Amino acid sequence: MAKEEFKCGGFRLSKGKIEINRKLASRTFDEFTPSDVMGIENCMRCGICSYSCPFWLETKKFYDVPAWRTYEINKIYSMFYTGYGIVARYLRLRRISGNEFKHWTESAYDCTACGACTYTSPMEVPNWYTAIIMRRILHYSGFNYESAEKLISNSKEKGNALGIENWGEVASKVGFNIDKKDSEILYVTSPLEIQNTDVLANTLSVLNKLKLNVTVSSEISDPGYYAYLMGDFETARGMLVKVYETAMKLNVKKDNHHRWYGVFLAKMARSKEH
Q: What residues of the chain score a pLDDT lower than 70?
């Protein structure tokens, strides 16, 4: 962290402090719902959530307390979206400490998003979600793990996080229907399943025993979960849209996909307006 300014994202180091610009804050928080805001602002930092976190129970490190992540995210939110926070930012009274920031990457990924911390929080604070938001900031600022960024780049370039290119061949060998119109279900795999054809074969066997009319798409081998969990919401959203568009193209019957697709596109339009 010797350089004065990082070209890769929205952080800048100044006199041992991390400064955050408006562009990074907008990318992170403009799509927050009122319930998201309520979640990060309601945290009392009582620490009760830590007793349900398997990481903190093992390490006892302060940055593995789920509420610590929420407080860090709330500091950034308040600096751009609350009156007192904006004043504090201009007076240089509120910043992200470099000593604390160096723990962000480890803290953000010391979380499986299991949600146990939310169940034990007196205010039901979604501390697991702030771990994802922390990863999003790390992604945009250029401080994310290289392995996480690799999963993101694979999702963008190859269509799945593990970079597997022969999905159609694998599905055909296992025995799945491919791009079959008017099926009851569009089955969207995980890249991990593609790596293990035994898992895929067992899945198909169960679906057949349930007498379900299932198809897979030759173009979809990842629903976008990896990109989302690594902090790239835009890539994840694009992959999810592709799933819905493919379901419509193949006229899949299950789950009223036309209705949900319309709702999804409406939300997308509103987010782009901001």
A: 1-18, 254-274
Q: Which helix (H) or strand (E) holds 36?
A: helix 34-41
Inter-residue contact 184 to 210 (CB < 8 Å): no
Number of residues written out for the chain: 274
The answer for 113, left when phi > 0, alpha when psi is -120 to 50, beta otherwise, is left
- Taking residue 77's Cβ as centre, other Cβ atoms within 10 Å add up to 21
What is the reported pTM?
0.82
For residue 81 the two structure tokens come to 């979206």
Would you put residue 139 in left (φ > 0), alpha (ψ -120 to 50) or beta? Answer: alpha
Residues 126 and 118 sit within 8 Å (Cβ to Cβ): yes
Residue 30 makes CB contacts below 8 A (sequence gap 6+) with 271, 274
How far does the chain reach from its first CA to its final CA, in angstroms? Answer: 33
* DSSP, residue by residue, 149-179: HHHHHHHHHHSSTT----HHHHHHHHT--BS
Q: Which amino acid belongs to residue 72?
A: E
Q: Are 107 and 69 in contact (CB under 8 A)?
A: yes
| pLDDT at residue 28, as a whole number | 87
* Spatial contact of 115 and 47, defined as CB atoms under 8 Å apart: no
Classify the C-alpha dihedral 27-85-108-115 as positive or negative. Answer: negative
What is the SS3 assignment for 66?
A: helix
- The predicted-structure confidence for 124-149, as pLDDT tens digits, reads as follows 999 999 999 999 999 988 889 999 99
Q: Which two tokens stand for residue 216?
A: 């897979």
Q: How far apart are CA 40 and CA 77, in angstroms?
A: 9
